[in-house]
């Protein structure tokens, strides 16, 4: 049978993952190279510690390898699946270690990068673009609250302590931010539909 | 409390629930209401999509030097295999090394089911036919890059493996599963080497959440049951060792023995 010349770099994410289940070394290498930056990025953003983040990123990719056969692409993209695994593992690690609260400077830096202009940051798809714009347009205190909750996994109480505000205010900021961000996605779907 | 009041309360809690940061009594309160309110479940699903979207905005970062090698090592892939892969040399024939038996991923956080539902809802339209194409491409990939090595029976390391001339390649067999009324329902790929195997994906819109059985009709007419697997929302992909050869037939039957689809495997 002749070789089918599909450059491995051009394969869809789902294809690489499906191929990972076969145990093929070349596919595994390509898979790790494609996603390592993303999962490490999420892990280090949450943990703020490259050593811990590496452990989380390794566990994430290892889990993907072990469970590639049960991935259902209708539940979401491979990238979303991997980042969710990495995020959950990182949050678990933070909570287990009761690590030092978020560094305010790191929080500001992360928000700055997340709301950076699309020209400077690759936006994966239109939905991400809409969410990016909506996040950028949030009042700063709401953006901080939703990033602390959504990325750092901080509870309302933790955000209240961190910001020096009443618990009710922290919850209100999260809710207001999430409501606006949801509207951006729902509005996009409605326009597309 | 009236139902409307419960929904109002849920909307207050939903953002934190969707982000996985709701704790204690409030979490229990929210989950209790969600068990009985589809509208509020829908609302939480939408908010969960927002949480996923936020994660997607987090930038990537370069992992430490050696990270790739360490990950691959945990997958059981040696430096030699990595070098071979990088140079385009053949890797070991499948199935030479597979991940441990797949099992559902334990949810690190209890809200995982909600997140799964959210993703399913948010993306099912766009992703509908991706699995078929993905699996097809994956199989093509496996044979495209390492297929000629399939005739090898040894499990030598890539460095020790012989080149393409060492074995006569066997063709990848393929068939499109079609129903009795000629509707396409999936694909089958098979390889008649040693060990022989079969892989299929199935998309059965009108049969959701069902278990199906794969059977192979061999050249002498013998019908062999290869295995049974479950479809989730009408979709499933599955593979197993199978006694298979060119011109033989594969078919899919439901739990009642009704033939859902069949195909003849050709090179």
Characterization of the model:
- The complex is a heterodimer of chains A (193) and B (267).
- With 193 residues, chain A is mostly helical.
- Helices cover 70% and strands 0% of the residues of chain A.
- Chain A is built from nine helices and no strands.
- In chain A, helix 1 (13-20) packs across helix 2 (25-47) and helix 3 (50-67) packs across helix 4 (78-97).
- The longest helix of chain A is centred in the last third of the chain and has 26 residues, at 167-192.
- Chain B is 36% helix and 21% strand.
- Chain B has seven helices and eight strands; from the N terminus they run αααααααββββββββ.
- In chain B, a hairpin with a 5-residue loop joins strand 2 and strand 3.
- Classes of the chains: A mainly alpha (193), B alpha+beta (267).
- The interface between A and B is large, with 94 and 93 residues.
Summary keywords:
heterodimer, A: 193 residues, mainly alpha, 9 helices, B: alpha+beta, four-stranded antiparallel β-sheet, 7 helices, flat
Secondary-structure map with pairings?
The complex is a heterodimer of chains A (193) and B (267).
Chain A: H1 13-20, H2 25-47, H3 50-67, H4 78-97, H5 104-114, H6 126-136, H7 140-150, H8 156-163, H9 167-192
Chain B: H1 3-18, H2 24-34, H3 38-57, H4 67-74, H5 79-87, H6 112-127, H7 130-146, E1 172-178, E2 184-191, E3 197-203, E4 211-217, E5 223-230, E6 235-241, E7 249-254, E8 259-264
Antiparallel strand pairs in B: 1-2, 2-3, 3-6, 4-5, 4-7, 7-8
Order of helices and strands of chain B: HHHHHHHEEEEEEEE
- Give me the Rg of chain B, rounded: 24 Å
Beta-strand content of chain A: under 5%
How would you sum up the major sheet of chain B? 4 strands, antiparallel
Query: What would you call the shape of chain B?
Result: flat
Order of helices and strands of chain A: HHHHHHHHH
Low-pLDDT residue intervals, each spanning 5 or more residues of chain B: 89-168
What level of helicity do the residues of chain A show?
Answer: over 70%
| Tertiary shape of chain A | globular
